[in-house]
Amino acid sequence: MIDPLERWRAHGEKPDYAGLLTYGGVPYTQDAAELVGFDVAIVGAPTDDLVSAHPGTRFGPRAIRAASCPAGPHLEAGVDAFEVLRVVDFGDAAVLPAEPVKTHEAIEALVGEVVDAGALPVILGGDHSIAEPDIRAVARRRGPVGLIHFDTHTDTGETVFGAALSHGTIMRRLVEQGWVDPARYVQIGLRGYWPGEAEFTWQHDRGITSFFMHDVREVGIRDVVSRAIGIAGPGPVFLSVDVDVLDPAFAPGTGTPEPGGMTSMDLLWACREIGARVELCGVDVVEVAPTQIGSADITALVADRIVREALTGVATRKLGSVR
């Protein structure tokens, strides 16, 4: 176990720009035996071999770690997730460029080690295809899961540009393979021009629930999230957040930006609320492409805060169960 604060321990904190780069400055290990006793393990999945538009998400995990802020109390919730939860950075999966099947196997194996140790896996992507090995690793051990999925797109294509394995097909694959319970699957933030009638017919026939951006606009994020939580219901729920659910003004660094999306404020609140109110079994944040022109670290910064808000919710839930 490596402690990034070791040389600064006497001072109680270190500058963000110094020392080993781990998520939020938490301890780092590559030894699965050292995961025991931790509540949360951060896993990187730096791959973009299966994108259908702009690449660059292979740099996402490193950028999110660099943008991550040190521990401290959430000013609204009054909870410091890093005090309530023991968090460790488990490093990156052994991805192999141009070998998406082997890359997915490596991601699934690493996430599986986290679940086996009793910790909550939080995966930093990477394109959205990583959700397939992420969720599969959890569902192999816990049975079919509920899914709350923030995205511009449904990712339920049968193929994308003729490819069955793509960041645009993984949700369909997860449902068809039995890893996600379609009756407990909710999509939030859909808009734009894809997918089409065939995909939505397939979803309707399986009981998948979709909330479009006009639903968020007309009834409000609080009502949409409340409905989503009710549909996901009791039992393990996976939270998957594609940053392109946000309007490009808030997340310009992503491969398939679509105007008219959510605000950061609404999405961050939603992730915290979901973390506090469901039995989270895993979280991934995907499609951060920090190399996109105009991105700077804006998109990585909001991705970090998505993770922090979800963990604040988990910590709030844990404190509530203790109290």
Automatic annotation (TrEMBL):
A GO molecular function annotation here is: metal ion binding
Cofactor(s) required, per the database record:
Mn(2+)
Keywords recorded for this protein, A-Z? Hydrolase, Manganese, Metal-binding
Q: Does the keyword Aminoacyl-tRNA synthetase apply?
A: no
Cite the Pfam families for this sequence.
Arginase (PF00491)
- Mind giving the lineage of the organism this protein is from? Bacteria, Bacillati, Actinomycetota, Thermoleophilia, Solirubrobacterales
The UniProt note on the cofactor reads as follows: Binds 2 manganese ions per subunit.
The text of the family note is: Belongs to the arginase family. Agmatinase subfamily.
NCBIfam families for this protein: agmatinase
Which one GO biological process term can you cite for this protein? Answer: putrescine biosynthetic process from arginine, via agmatine
Q: Where does the chain bind Mn(2+)?
A: 128, 151, 153, 155, 242, 244
**The gene coding this protein:** speB
Q: Which organism is it from?
A: Solirubrobacter phytolaccae
The protein in question is named Agmatinase
The EC number on file is: 3.5.3.11
Q: Does the keyword Manganese apply?
A: yes
